[in-house]
Amino acid sequence: MGSPARVAAPEAPGRLGVAIDARELLTYLGGLETWLGQRRTELDRLDEAAQAAETPHSYTSDLLLALTLWQAIRGRADELQVVWDSGRADAVARERMSQLVWGRLDSGNGAALVSLVEAVNLCDALVVQLRTRLSFDPSTADQVARLRGLRAELVRCEDLAGSDPGARATIESLRRRLDRITERAARGGDVSGPLAELETATAHAERDLIVAASQRRQLAADRQRAEEQRAALEAREPALHDLAARCRAEIAVPPKHAVPDVSRLGPVPADRAALDDYVQRLETVGRALAAVEGAYAAPLRERAELRYALAGLRTRAAEAGRDASLTVRSGYDEAHEAVERTPCDLAMARFLVDQFRYLARPMPAPALSPTPPRPVAGHEGAPQ
């Protein structure tokens, strides 16, 4: 296969949660479109070469993953163009674009576990491996170059593995296989089969390590969010205890709810399954705190509303001249005593305020008596 000059993946600007500079976005979007166009052409050519190979099924999984990644990147690039709006994106929109660039993709087959930047790198790695495998010809291939490429790929895998013992053990196993193949090739042996198998295994290992690294970063970010959410819930507890104590002191029949203890959830776990369960319990505790806050605040709020309403009714009664009535004054005194008494019986206070509302209403104007008609002289029965 021919090897035209390959367009390098564009360097992603900014970082998550920050509005990216408009000029950097313009450059990145242009580079991404160019990259997408060339990689699609390259993948189509690789697909044709795989179909013409002796064992086309051996390339199917890598081709499918590479095409799936490309499609996910294409979809995210379209989303970026919509938000970009031909350069009319404001700071809020450009911050949204940073989330689209650095956030996880929404595709399957592993693409949902990586960001746009990681998906581009992973797609490039798969394309390079496919190009190497499909260009292999036992009679003409440069085994030295392929072995050198495998060593470089294993170094990248080591960087991705970090201190993960399982991943490092896998890399060591691949390196031993490479050493055996190198030794056999140096003796003049045929290494075409084992070399192709090792290239495939190494490509899969690099892909899995890229996904695992992305998962670790996502796990760390989710743990940090859980820590912040837990701290925020713990910070609400003292205020809720004070609110509950105030309600029990000021209301005769207060609610009977316990304030949830966030500390009983324990520390934030480090593994994914336990963290997901922990986050769900955090959300449950958050809803419980909100319910407790609403339950204890409602009686206090109603008492304040009754006080306000009673003061307004008294003012309207005075304006209508009803405050001179002994009954009205007595109704006000009863209602006022009920709302000011501590602890306050809300049911009684509510009843007495409604009673005063009735007593303080303006009295209707008295109806005028009709004037009897005057008799007309000369009519029958009229006095002469």
Q: What gap, in angstroms, lies between the N and C termini?
A: 138 Å
Envelope shape? elongated
Mean pLDDT figure? 84
Give the low-pLDDT segments. Answer: 136-141
Q: Counting H and I runs of at least 4 residues, what is the number of helices?
A: 10
Q: Main sheet, how many strands, which sense, barrel?
A: none
Question: What does this protein look like?
Answer:
The chain has ten helices and no strands. It is an all-alpha fold and 384 residues long. It has three domains: 22-220, no CATH class; 225-296, no CATH class; 299-359, no CATH class. It is elongated. 22% of the residues are buried. Residues 136-141 have low confidence and may be disordered.
